[in-house]
Amino acid sequence: xxxxxxxxxxxxxxxxxxxxxxxxxxxxxxxxxxxxxxxxxxxxxxxxxxxxxxxxxxxxxxxxxxxxxxxxxxxxxxxxxxxxxxxxxxxxxxxxxxxxxxxxxxxxxxxxxxxxxxxxxxxxxxxxxxxxxxxxxxxxxxxxxxxxxxxxxxxxxxxxxxxxxxxxxxxxxxxxxxxxxxxxxxxxxxxxxxxxxxxxxxxxxxxxxxxxxxxxxxxxxxxxxxxxxxxxxxxxxxxxxxxxxxxxxxxxxxxxxxxxxxxxxxxxxxxxxxxxxxxxxxxxxxxxxxxxxxxxxxxxxxxxxxxxxxxxxxxxxxxxxxxxxxxxxxxxxxxxxxxxxxxxxxxxxxxxxxxxxxxxxxxxxxxxxxxxxxxxxxxxxxxxxxx
Length: 387
What we know:
3 domains; 387 residues
């Protein structure tokens, strides 16, 4: 009881912003697989204060929420420690906001928070939006000056590191800068996309590619965020690779890598890594049915990448894919081994690999047959052109 009292006393000495930041950091460490004694009790106390619904997902407080609004569709819950092109971890927003308020623009941030709170109380949403937009412009200008030299960039990196140990937080600041810079263009691009893309067929791929081409001319650095907005509409995330494979003259990894949107392959691998993290958490909490669904998606993604990109196993994409699948196999093996050999486990079922079934194998042969016809037609066109 004495330890609990001391802990409560210590937490109350922190500012509300610091306590919120601490909660985000503890959750990030937990999702990364780092166990800290006493962390559960601290998280429970902090969630009771900041999240009345008991949510385990970070949600920004009002002033910061309005500031980060342009990022909302690009946020990912959880704590991925890989690059995650085109997306920003929600858990990094709290430490980034604290860094802005304490180090980057302390006086302006204080004025912004007061102005936002006053207008929220007055129920004036138009003025709230205007104030948030103005502060975003100010932060953007300061970030551009900060990143103008290597020395000031490293100083900023060190300051941010005081609020989080995340390896990706500083990259998320850079992403935030890119999103704010292309904010209006991204918003307009998003509005023109269909609400959902149930079938990412050739016609849809051509239409989306045309819109991406137009966007890329003016905002090349923001293309990953535009691709993320496209991915939100897809039924399955691996379909994003069609933006690269459709544009390539063949299915070889080299040809796919030479296309303008080859980066989508890494983006699909990022999402595969997210599923690996989610699988680990599901297994840790004995949520086997959730783990089953995740594993099905994982196997489908692996199959789609291998069948659509020839020679993928020999390139960087394939190396990362194999590393992920090895890590996933280790998780599944550890779970299945907890049960006797004569007791079947749902995660060990071949049914989860739909391409291993008869229908899946027939579908694979159909794919290969179509590829052979297309390759033959392409070779014939080249021969005719040469003559």
